[in-house]
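Reading a protein record of the kind used here takes only a little practice. Think of the row as the fold of the chain written in a discrete alphabet. With that in mind, consider the following protein and its fold in token form:
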Amino acid sequence: MKLKIINPDAGLTRKELDERIKILKTVVRKDTIISMDCPKNGNIEIDSKTDVYLASGEIIKIAIEAEKEGYDVVAIYCLSDPAIEACRELLKIPVIGGGQCSLQIACGLGYSFSIITTFDRRIPEKKEFVRNSGVDFTRLCSIRSINTSLENIHKDKKNLKKLLLETSKKVIEDGAEVIILGCLSFLGMAEEISKELNIPVIDPAFNLVLMAELIYYQKLAHSKVSYPFPEEKNRSWGNGNI
């Protein structure tokens, strides 16, 4: 299987992308080929609903090119699943997102779940995402944040684990039976936290690549009844700023 992962945060270096691929390869089949790219024509880092919309145009273009290049699955490396519906309209190959996959797995592992995100300001967006996901909203127990930047997440993994553990204990007190790490930059942290707290902790990045294999090897894809091709016509937009 050839998997194209779209990391919607612009500006990541090839080294940074390859480091993530190296970690993801530890959980997939040996014959699974993973490629990860990010937008190059902007400076959008997914940190709000505004960023989700502004990043969508280039995400769509990367997804279309991936299908043309012979990739079997496109995976969107973000818990907000930016542009997933549009990509599904335009592509025949499966398009999956870290958020939707993680919610589906969480509901299969317990009666209630909580999400841990980066900042308090992301909490309303995540509530809206869960409400619109098709998952029973009453199963969302709570959403809490560790209140630290992506820069801090990448440079200090020891402190990240400390913050995630502290916040995980709080959501367990809230009543959570399953925890979703609500940012794919938390890659690789779930297993240790799960063992320490004796509760299922979902790593959306691992979940994403394994779900890609699950769908591909069953020869499944999103329904084109649900996501019909849009009318063929020229569509263009200009670069701007906000």
Notes: The mean pLDDT is 94. The two ends are 39 Å apart (CA to CA).
